[in-house]
Amino acid sequence: MGKDVIVACDFSSAEATYRFLDMFTGRKPFVKIGMELFYAEGPEIVREIKARGHKIFLDLKLHDIPNTVKKAMNVLSRLDVDICNLHASGTVPMMQAALEGLTRDDGTRPLLIAVTQLTSTDQTHLEEDLWIHEPMEKVVMHYAENAKKAGLDGVVCSPLEAEAVHRCCGSGFLTVTPGVRFADGDKGDQKRVMTPEEARKIGSDYIVVGRPITAAADPVAAYERCVREFCDEETK
Ligand code: C5P
Asked: Containing domain of residue 24, as a range?
């Protein structure tokens, strides 16, 4: 898979999601299904969106003991999604177990990526809540290296960290980056943001974009603008 824009379908029902996706006539955006939609609608929403021809990033961020995560991933492997994820803080054995569970009998599997530190976590949370006394960037790189050691395909990280992750884990190690906003857009609750063009220049492999597309007056135009800025070097 190459560079692409993943649309975060943060809707609470199947109807709202289909109403949104139906606007894209002739286009099949890569879709992110998160906890809200999955818990509301169950695996059927994944099957339906896949049947409509979309690639899917199933963003459920698993974190439990290795055996439980392995079995859960085994169930998810039957859904034929393109990317799954988990928390790197679950440890290397948990990530290895996840990979085993996700691998089908024929050896195929979805890509598996790890959340390093959520972008809602700051240095104060690291120190005071988690008792991690190292700078955020060092923690993120360590978790990315653990994910690589476990055999995973990449990480979810801030676009500001994408370059450093590639430096320490190699350019083939995927960086999937949320926190993207248009230069003239509203930042909402995202604090450390980049434009799609900046994310491309810094080497993000995939950008995850929610409200700048889903809440736009013209979502299809906003999506196409994202694709143009992120994927098409010729426009610059
Ligand atoms: O609407 P917005 O573009 O901010 O949506 C970003 C999406 O990426 C949301 O679905 C959010 O849950 C997800 N995400 C994030 N930061 C992370 C991990 C996931 O914003 N660290």
From this structure: 4-231
